[in-house]
Write a structure and sequence with these properties.
It is an enzyme of class 3 (hydrolase). The protein is α+β, with helices and mostly antiparallel strands. The chain is about 30% helix and about 25% strand.
């Protein structure tokens, strides 16, 4: 499925994108759409088309599978993202990473700011950078503001892994990939992470690969 023409009006491009049905194609790193940033959502799609687009984001995220997906990752430069994390992880991982289940959420025009100065570093991946992971130090707690898909205000504090997810997805809306914030020496293939760095925390990887943790 090709990417809709950048010259077409936004709603028309989204209609074209959805016409194929099924999960959408996820844009890979190197496509300029992931770097241009997004425009705030202000009714450009209308309620019905927005609902269809949100459902497409959800089905695409689940099919990937992933725990979040931002509109630019399917070629749409709107400030919209979705998150969902069933968190099927062992108890030791849950405790170390603060990874707890998150219901499906739609984030419209989200903005985050750190709460306090604590930071946490863990391996992180991205559906737009398939096959690779790297350690990223992020704020351990953030305040997220914005709206949901119905225009209701969001003002919520996230901690642990949910805080990491909302930072990662909101960064996408600003043209930022997780690699921009990563420890470059930690970059590892998914196979290497599985075989060598599957521990709940990245201390062993930091010692072996030669990078610092906060």
């Amino acid at each position: 499925m090709g990417t809709p023409s950048d010259r077409a009006p936004l709603a028309e491009r989204v209609e074209e994108l959805l016409a194929g049905g099924g999960p959408l194609t996820i844009v890979a790193a190197g496509d300029p759409v992931l770097r241009r940033g997004t425009e705030p959502y202000d009714g450009q799609l209308g309620p019905a088309l927005l609902a269809r687009f949100v459902e497409a984001l959800r089905s695409t995220m689940r099919a990937a599978p992933g725990v979040g997906l931002a509109a630019p990752q399917v070629g749409v430069e709107l400030r919209i993202a979705v998150i969902e994390d069933p968190a099927p992880v062992p108890e030791e991982v849950r405790l170390a990473r603060g990874r707890v289940p998150q219901p499906f959420r739609v984030l419209v025009n989200p903005v985050y700011e750190p709460v306090g100065g604590a930071r946490a570093a863990f391996f992180e991946g991205c559906l737009s950078v398939p096959g690779w992971q790297a350690v990223v130090a992020r704020a351990a707690e953030v305040r997220l503001t914005g709206q949901d898909e119905h225009g209701h205000a969001l003002d919520e504090v996230f901690t642990g892994w949910p805080a990491r997810i909302v930072q990662h997805e909101t960064d996408h809306l600003d043209g930022v990939l997780y690699l921009d914030r990563a420890e470059s020496r930690s970059l590892s293939s998914n196979q290497a992470v599985t075989e060598r760095w599957a521990q709940p925390t990245p201390e062993e990887a930091a010692r072996a690969l030669g990078f610092e943790l906060p």
